[in-house]
Specification:
about 210 residues; alpha/beta; Rossmann fold; Arc Repressor Mutant, subunit A; 2 domains; 5 strands
Length: about 210
């Protein structure tokens, strides 16, 4: 499994990385400093990330939904947010919030507990992922199985994009942040191995010919 650190302060990122390495449970630790770098990660990488430690300030355009791009791009990752502001209201989103002033000892203990929880759930995770892949090989058609890997929300967004709606319009229709739509579209294009919205829209339209 992999870990992800999203933070724009080098010393802070290095300290967290050192704590991760002491756990000896992660095959690699990915470091990014901005939301753009997060979007540039490959699907193969993001699907293996099990724990993300992030600085909400790295998502200045989404102060009230900073966790959404991570949840969408790294769907199997637990999230720990370390910030200076009070984000306690986001506990219901399943995000652990801790202050950046937390001691190294307390942070190490939190990481150990979290990693233990992840490991205890690994058997369940490994059972689910192969099942998803099996369903994509149940037909001889080489294109439609890809659609089965899409969540209902991603299909919804792709359908609206194919209808010509902009990210802003889609966000308004679905009552979600525009940044969330952008994150979905970026991942959709990666999954389809296309480089722009037009190609993604054409792919979608071809499924119903």
């Amino acid at each position: 499994m992999k870990a992800l650190i999203i933070d724009n302060e080098d010393l802070f990122r290095l300290g967290i990385k050192n704590l991760f390495e002491t756990q000896n449970q992660f095959e690699s630790i990915i470091e990014v400093t901005t939301d753009r770098e997060l979007l540039s990660l490959s699907v193969a990488e993001t699907q293996q990330i099990r724990l993300t430690i992030m600085n909400p300030a790295c998502f200045p355009d989404m102060p009230d939904a900073f966790w959404r791009p991570v949840q969408q791009i790294c769907p199997t990752s637990q999230i720990i947010a370390m910030g200076d502001a009070n984000y306690e209201q986001f506990k219901y989103q399943g995000i652990q919030f801790i202050p950046r002033a937390i001691s190294a000892y307390d942070m190490a203990m939190l990481l150990q507990r979290t990693v233990n929880d992840i490991i205890s759930a690994q058997n369940t995770i490994h059972v689910q992922e192969p099942n998803e892949q099996i369903t994509t090989t149940s037909t001889s058609n080489e294109v439609k199985p890809v659609m089965k890997n899409f969540s209902k929300r991603r299909l919804q967004i792709l359908e609206m994009a194919a209808m010509g709606l902009s990210n802003k319009d889609i966000a308004s229709e679905l009552n979600i942040a525009e940044g969330t739509v952008k994150a979905h579209m970026h991942l959709i294009m990666k999954m389809l191995n296309v480089t722009n919205r037009t190609q993604a829209a054409l792919w979608y339209q071809n499924q119903f010919e």
